Amino acid sequence: MCIESSGNETAGKPHTHLIHSGQVSVSDNNNFIMLQQNIRLSGATVVVTGGAGFIGSNLCEHLLETGHTVRCLDNFATGHIENILPLFEKHPGRFSLLVGDIRNMEDCRKAVDGMEYVLHEAALGSVPRSIKDPITTNAVNQIYNTAYGERTTLNQLVAYLKEYLSEYDPAIAAVEPVHGPNRAGDIPHSLADVDKAKRLLGYDPQFSMRQGLKEAVKWYWNNL
Ligand SMILES: NC(=O)c1ccc[n+]([C@@H]2O[C@H](COP(=O)([O-])OP(=O)(O)OC[C@H]3O[C@@H](n4cnc5c(N)ncnc54)[C@H](O)[C@@H]3O)[C@@H](O)[C@H]2O)c1
Questions:
Q1: How far apart are the C-alpha atoms of 112 and 28, rounded to whole Å?
Q2: Which strands, in side-by-side order, build the sheet including 95-99?
Q3: What are the percentages of helix, strand and coil residues in the chain, rounded to 5?
Q4: DSSP class of residue 10?
Q5: Which of 14, 19, 201, 213 is the most exposed place for a label (fewest CB within 10 A)?
Q6: Higher pLDDT residue, 170 or 37?
Q7: Ligand 1 mean position to 21 CA, how many Å?
């Protein structure tokens, strides 16, 4: 197991690209798809923030299995060491863990030292948590909305899912949702304003929620 507590000295530091979960943009306005291709083609060095979490640990595993070198930055606020322990054994020398906090500049500097890409997955989820402790949630989470810029209700989402999934299994068309009581902090209507991300990051979403959902359903049905 390699747990890092200090940065590596590297000659000729590479430019580091930042990619956030979901559909997010990159720090230097490069095209997201081109970045994905670059990562796919070369033996890249990649930092995964929140790499001990659900999304992050799966990303780490995928990147390692496709020949890349991965450094996980995580403070284990909600992540689990069990998510990443097998990666040390399976990929000796190519996986390392830096226990640190994305709110700490020094930890971030150490994490990106000598690395080419950052896949940024560290976050504090849970609406109830954000209501109980908004200051911590706001400090950790991103301040850019990266949605499509349209309103969608949960009922519409269920209708789309039924429509797309029933192409693969007609029985799903008959599934009816069960409505439960509201949870504290539920947001009945929301519309994320993506102007800031467009203006400052060149964010340019290519798929509407509906188009993206259709593609995702197709991928999950064929691959899982
Ligand atoms: N799970 C999903 O289905 C899903 C879907 C779409 C987008 N996302 C987004 O992906 C991101 C990760 O979600 P997840 O489900 O993997 O959550 P998770 O809670 O499993 O993982 C988050 C990770 O970030 C770490 N972390 C939290 N605060 C940190 C800090 N200050 N410094 C360093 N590490 C910190 C946690 O310890 C944890 O390992 C979130 O932004 C989430 O909104 C998740």
A1: 16
A2: 3-4, 95-99, 69-74, 45-49, 117-120, 17-20
A3: 40, 10, 50
A4: -
A5: 14
A6: 170
A7: 9
Backbone angles phi and psi of 215, in degrees to 5 = -65, -40
Is the full-model pTM beyond 0.85? no
| Per-residue model confidence (pLDDT) at position 112 | 97
Ligand 1 midpoint to CA 69 (Å):
21
Q: How confident is the model at residue 22 (pLDDT cuts 50, 70, 90)?
A: very low
Tell me which of 191 and 198 has the higher pLDDT: 198
Predicted pLDDT of residue 7:
35
Residue 58 phi, psi dihedral angles, 5° rounding: -70, -35
Neighbouring residues of 6: CB distance < 8 A, sequence distance ≥ 6: 110
Q: Is 197 in the pocket of ligand 1 (CB under 6 A)?
A: no
Position with higher pLDDT, 194 vs 127: 194
44-87 pLDDT, tens digit each: 999 999 999 999 999 999 999 989 999 999 999 999 999 999 99
User: Given the CA of residue 22, which atom of ligand 1 is nearest to it?
Assistant: 7
CB of 126 closer than 8 Å to CB of 185: no
Q: Residue 114 in contact with residue 12, Cβ under 8 Å?
A: no
Taking CA atoms, 39 is separated from 32, 48, 57, 122, in Å, by: 11, 13, 17, 20
Q: If you take atom 4 of ligand 1, which residue's CA is the nearest one?
A: 55
- The amino acid present at 123, given as its one-letter code, is A
The CA 18 to ligand 1 mean position distance, Å, reads: 16
- Atom nearest to 21 CA in ligand 1: 10
